[in-house]
Amino acid sequence: MRPSPKIGNSHLEQMNLIYEFICHFDVYNLLYAINGKQLDEEQIVSLTNDINDYNAKLSRQKQYLFKYCKTFPKVFAHEDNNLVDSSVKVSWRMRSGSACVKKVFKKFCKVSRKQLPEGVPEHQAHEVSLISAKNYVLDMFGLSSYPQCVKELFLVMFDFYTNMNECIEEGMRALKEEKVTKGDAKKYLDILIKSCEKSKKNQQVLIEAIMTDPEMKKAVMRNKTLSGEDENPVLKAYKNNASNKEHFAQKYYHNCSPMDVDRITIYEVNSEADEDPIMSFAKVVFGDDEVKILKINYLIENFDKLLPTECKRDKIHAMNLYFFFEWSKPIVGVESFLKYFDKYYKEHGGQWELIGKSAITGARTKHSQCKDGSTQKLKDKMLEQIKSMLDVKFPQMEIAS
Fold this sequence. Notes:
By secondary structure, this protein is mainly α. It has helices at residues 13-24, 27-37, 41-71, 86-92, 95-107, 125-128, 148-181, 185-202, 204-212, 214-222, 224-227, 233-240, 245-252, 258-273, 277-286, 290-301, 318-328, 334-347, 357-369, 374-393. Helix 15 (277-286) runs antiparallel to helix 18. The longest helix is centred in the middle third of the chain and has 34 residues, at 148-181. The radius of gyration is 31 Å and the shape is elongated.
């Protein structure tokens, strides 16, 4: 069996023991243990059924583990970050597998009725189990001389241990990725920024209310938790490191909760609301890149130039607006994008009537189902127009594609 990378954290000693066992397990281990326990065919079939059940539980846990490990290094905060360290969280998600491996150890332990002397600790199952023995006599005839039920038991055990090995490998891969991230200060900050953008999206109703309703802003400012006045230690550290956010991100990566990130987001929104309200609203919709927002605003001001000379029912052409939505890459949904677009477009003299979310959704569907390439041609033409307009207006700036 292919070996997993060895685990070095003390919290995962149990995983190390299982790793060692899996790496050395082969058919001779099993034959030695079966003979040592003198198992009959009925007992072997029963054991096969048990391990099949263990494997089913492990397979379900494996799905959770892989899903967790896929996102774990890329997310700034998890619910239990401030309670335990990363290795423990990964091992928790392996607990079904490790518990089942221990049950297998116990199945192959000889029953001893000897009373241990006082003060002598009882042996652990893996220390005395025949299946985990490292020194044993090889069976001369191998598996071929045993009944079919033994072969089935070996295949089931091999499948179970392969699954367990893959769980350990995936857990270690996630921990290694986290370790690499911890050596890159800029990456910490990138992950924090993305987490804050996700938090903005999750809180967009509240944030839009803060940006557009003075009474809501006052209510938020009176709420000590939302405003950050309760001196939450994470938010306090964030404010104290305002000029060096990389330092904050490095210290609190995987060391705070999602609620802390939500507080940071609300704090930033409140701070921005005291500045230019349009720019603040734009940051909620498109992120913090002010150069990107400057270009988007310029295009909205001149959006009529991107439209056909005549629009049906005097409304903005839905396909053009859908392509612009795609190009601008908002960090929120269509509704928030339209609120911003509609406000800015009308304030800057847009001549056509506005459209709703259903029109954008319809345009998306029509484009995805278009077989003759007509909508793609329209998109290519519009993107070329956008590039030309930005090249003229911002000749020294790099244009986002």
